[in-house]
Amino acid sequence: MSLTDILSPSDIAAALRDCQAPDSFSPKKFFQISGMSKKSSSQLKEIFRILDNDQSGFIEEDELKYFLQRFECGARVLTTSETKTFLAAADHDGDGKIGAEGIVSFKYRMRHLRMFAVMWNSLLC
Prior knowledge:
- This protein is globular.
- The longest helix has 25 residues, at 100-124.
- A two-stranded antiparallel ribbon has the order 1-2.
- The chain is built from six helices and two strands.
- By secondary structure, it is mainly alpha-helical.
- Helix 1 runs antiparallel to helix 2 (27-34) and helix 3 crosses helix 6 (100-124).
- InterPro entries: EF-hand-dom_pair, EF_Hand_1_Ca_BS, EF_hand_dom, Parvalbumin.
- This is Parvalbumin.
């Protein structure tokens, strides 16, 4: 199975275009543009399995910097800052690596933050 069996090639291309410049990568935005934020937990776990280059069951920091290249060979590597930010956002247990559950929980944390922002904005208006 490949990523394009789960995600639209045009959505992947759009997500990669959005973060071409160094230090422009936002995990939240990438998940949204690529369509990952709309996928089920089982689909996210399959995406994780594909992204886990060494098949260790975790994506470690040294693998994470090549995250964009797992979607397209010619894509850039993440900067050190982007890698650390992404790791901090998706490492749900603080062990310095991302498990499949970390990717799934990252998606749900994004959804809850979005709902909170909508509610907060409605209170301000």
